[in-house]
């Protein structure tokens, strides 16, 4: 990065605490509408889960009401949230 004086400014690396503030999670919620197969397929396609990981996430959401399925920066999660919502799967970014 260059400031107005033409001097280079280096962006400081974020501390782990600052990185945690930037990180958010895509949360999958249990519903009474979607089948396990539909949710599992969406997790594999949208969130790049393995089949086993998708099955476990679906089960956790079923029994506990919700499950974090993807973590990262908001911009990354927004695309996944939109894709899951288009599949009529209840998710949010927290």
Describe what this molecule looks like in 3D.
With 94 residues, this protein is α+β, with helices and mostly antiparallel strands. The chain has a single domain, classed as Ribosomal protein L7/L12, C-terminal domain/Adaptor protein ClpS (Ribosomal Protein L30, Chain: A, 2-Layer Sandwich), CATH 3.30.1390. The chain is 49% helix and 17% strand. The protein has four helices and three strands, in the order H-E-H-H-E-H-E. A three-stranded antiparallel beta sheet has the order 2-1-3. Helix 2 packs across helix 3. The radius of gyration is 18 Å and the shape is globular. The two termini are 31 Å apart.
Give the second-level CATH assignment, the architecture. 2-Layer Sandwich
Domain tally: 1
N-to-C CA distance: 31 Å
DSSP helix count?
Answer: 4
State mean pLDDT (0 to 100 scale).
86
Which percent bin holds the helix content?
A: 40-55%
Quaternary state of this entry equals single chain
Secondary structure: number of strands = 3
CATH topology, anyone? Ribosomal Protein L30, Chain: A
Strand order of the largest sheet: 2-1-3
Main sheet makeup: 3 strands, antiparallel
Q: Strand-residue fraction? A: 15-25%
Shape: globular
Q: Which CATH top level class fits?
A: Alpha Beta
Q: Please give the radius of gyration in angstroms.
A: 18 Å
Compressed to H and E, one letter per element, the order equals HEHHEHE
């Amino acid at each position: 990065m260059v400031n107005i004086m033409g001097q280079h400014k280096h962006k400081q690396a974020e501390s782990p605490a600052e990185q945690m503030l930037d990180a958010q999670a895509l949360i999958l919620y249990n519903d009474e509408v979607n089948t396990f197969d539909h949710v599992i397929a969406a997790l594999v396609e949208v969130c790049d889960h393995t089949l086993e990981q998708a099955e476990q996430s679906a089960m956790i959401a079923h029994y506990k009401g919700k499950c974090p399925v993807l973590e990262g920066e908001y911009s990354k999660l927004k695309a996944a949230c939109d894709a899951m919502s288009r599949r009529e799967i209840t998710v949010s970014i927290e």
